[in-house]
Please model this.
Amino acid sequence: MTGRNALVVRTTRETDIRLELSLDGQGQAEIQTGIGFFDHMLEGFARHGFFDVKLTVKGDLQVDGHHTVEDTGIVLGQAIARAAGDKKGIRRYGYFLLPMDDALVACAVDLCGRPYLNFDYTFDAPMIGGLDTELIREFFYAVSYSAGMNLHIKVLDGRNGHHIAEAMFKAFSKALDMAVGAEPRLDGVLSTKGTL
Model:
């Protein structure tokens, strides 16, 4: 499987976003969102999932980071859906248990076409660097609904917010990499309905 790429451009009165995504990359990232810690999380997503990502976001950060983070999630979800295409020959399901120092995070993904997010963690600190921690859930919600995926993220252990957030993004990337990976025994899509 090669050549699964997507380009998504989204311009509103709140954000101007351009995203190029390759599901069959080498983990290369060029990311500028205007929020340093968010850039760091998305760079980890690209690197550990072996996705190539070029992303520029110009958002209304003079208001706050909400529109920038949420709209980036919308665009990333759209790009994942476009790049995965008809989903023929992929595993569909992916999961990963990721340790990050004190943190341990589980993530499971189903590229079923039905959106759902299960995210039950509340960060102790209101901010990590320049990122409002409430927006981490908003990001994953936007990704799951725009991509049409079931996404479950569970924090099993951890004290440090930076480590927990980083473990979430990396666990998601590893689970997604598994889900979009090739299943050589499969002819068509992995569904008794014949479509996803």
Q: What stands out?
A: The first helix runs from residue 36 to 49. The chain is about 35% helix and 30% strand. The mean pLDDT is 96. The helical segments are 36-49, 66-84, 134-147, 161-180.
